[in-house]
Amino acid sequence: MDNERIFIFFKKIPLFCIVFFAVYSNKLYSTDFSYGGNFLKIPVPALTSGLSEAYTSMISADSILYNPAGIGLLTYSSVSTTYNRYIEGINQGYISGVINTPYGNFGVVYSALKSGDIVSYDENENITGKTSTSHSFYGIAYAKGFPYFDYAKDRIDPMLITPSWTRMKPVRVYIPKVYRFSFGFLVKRIEEKLDTESSSSLLFDGGALLILPGHFQLGASAQNIGGSQKFYQEKNDIPRVYRFGVSKDVATENNVMNFIFSLDYVNDQSEGSYINFGLEDDIAKTFQVRFGYTTRESEMSSMTAGIGMNFDKLLSKDSFLKGLRMDYAFMSYGIFGATHRIGFQMVW
């Protein structure tokens, strides 16, 4: 897409221009439009957003976005959803789910960001009607953990960083505490519509996760392998992203508080390298406080924050669900205002 076509497009959709600047400011500063699919960089899940997305070595349904191997060590099934009230009235929805089976864990994910109706203008600033933009992706994942213990199903594996679920009990019989390992992959399709133009691409993510004694978790993943976008007759590659993460938790006496530290090194083909750091304080497996910090230059704020609240105790004994939690995350985009994410996680 040459600069003249870009200028005309932004004149037609001024609101989209603002959003594009807020999310992809690094590209506007450099006037480099050689990469596509940049909406994939927007933090989505409420839980991970509060930790500045330092999640490559963590384990939950949200792991599917950072390291698909993370879903391979879940010993139960789970669903995660988030609604993101983005800047300038743009909305984003997200849902992921993992089904636990003896043959490995299967996951699905879907996310969509839509602008709604936007008044459009021509190059002379005359109103020409309304238009819209949409950006979405969906995918399927598979991950397998080793070794596999059938008696650990629907139980908490003591080797893993302790989750906050209160009705999910630990394994009651002996289980080796030597190591855990998993690998996983995600096949996803992205679809974008900008005014009258549309594009789609098929991408691949892959990763691995290693659990060591003492609740040390190490993860690595490669994202957005293969695929490209084509808008206005110009083909743009989807930037590859390589992630390396480590996490560790430290509990106080009687597990009144559990501090979870996570650190990611991320190399983005379009942005270079940066560090994400996250800290969660899980209080009595009921209330979680989260903070995050990133050195990523394209973010307009280096700090994030979030909270979580467990509602396990409100579930009846006969309930199909074994855990229910609500999460919230706050992120600021400077002069464009704050964004708010509200999410829910359910396990069974």
Throw out a few tags for this protein.
348 residues; Porin; 14-stranded antiparallel beta barrel; two-stranded antiparallel sheet; disordered N terminus
Structure description:
The chain has 348 residues and is mainly beta. The N terminus is likely disordered. The strands form three sheets. A 14-stranded antiparallel β-barrel has the order 1-2-3-6-7-8-9-12-13-14-15-16-17-18. A two-stranded antiparallel sheet has the order 4-5. Helix 1 packs across helix 2. It has one domain: Porin. Strand 4 and strand 5 form a beta hairpin. It contains four helices and 18 strands.
By DSSP, the count of extended strands is 18
Main sheet record = 14 strands, antiparallel, barrel
Please state the second-level CATH architecture: Beta Barrel
Mean pLDDT: 87
The proportion of strand residues reads over 45%
The structural domain count equals 1
The gross shape turns out to be globular
N-to-C series of helices and strands:
HHHHEEEEEEEEEEEEEEEEEE
Q: Which residue ranges are poorly predicted, with pLDDT under 50 across at least 5 consecutive positions?
A: 1-18, 20-32
Short description:
The chain contains four helices and 18 strands. It has about 350 residues and is mainly β. It has one domain: Beta Barrel (Porin), CATH 2.40.160.
